[in-house]
């Protein structure tokens, strides 16, 4: 299979941390089909294993080799990885998602950037399978992978922690589209399974999504505020929409959610940490969770 030149470049020139983020995004886009298939098959324990594997990939902390090896063993016994299996339809689509996870976890053991190639190939193979001969999904997957490589390779190690939430949000959005296509093509079950990635956003804004529009009316995007009470009191907070930070129309189209930034200075340059949420209702939920009160527009 021909490897995208951008992925080949990452495999030879990138770092392990960069390749890990890229592989996590590939696995995120394929995980929805895999988890839905496992839910339809009544295999909650295997679902849990796959969700845990995906979380291992997205964790930006240095990998624990023994934990990665144990996860690799857990995945290796799933029947969809049997080399004698010649699956088709939904089973084949699920197997591609599992292979993306399996190869991604293997990369956590070897810790080499060339491990990004196999998750890339699995994500592209799933896109082709869902196309039904049209080619649009496969072309979109190529564009996404090229874009992700370019973005990830441009981030400094310090910036990776700030951008990981937005990268995952974009991958999750594409994952939902892959799941919808698989449901239509293969008749996978109706509701999305419990889990992560395309099925459950990291911070659910509100139980009643009718409150979202009201919350947006209170939004203070791009405004720096000072945290006066609660977690990180005395520090500064700013909320940015991912779409506002995109460098091109294509990136804006794929951007989703918002980033909550907390830093030691109002310019957000010192000790800055970020958290991704879905919308301003998610911001308010996060503030309540941390007990934070913010005076907006008071930063010097």
TrEMBL record:
Could you tell me the superkingdom of the organism this chain comes from? Bacteria
- Any idea what this protein is called? Uncharacterized protein
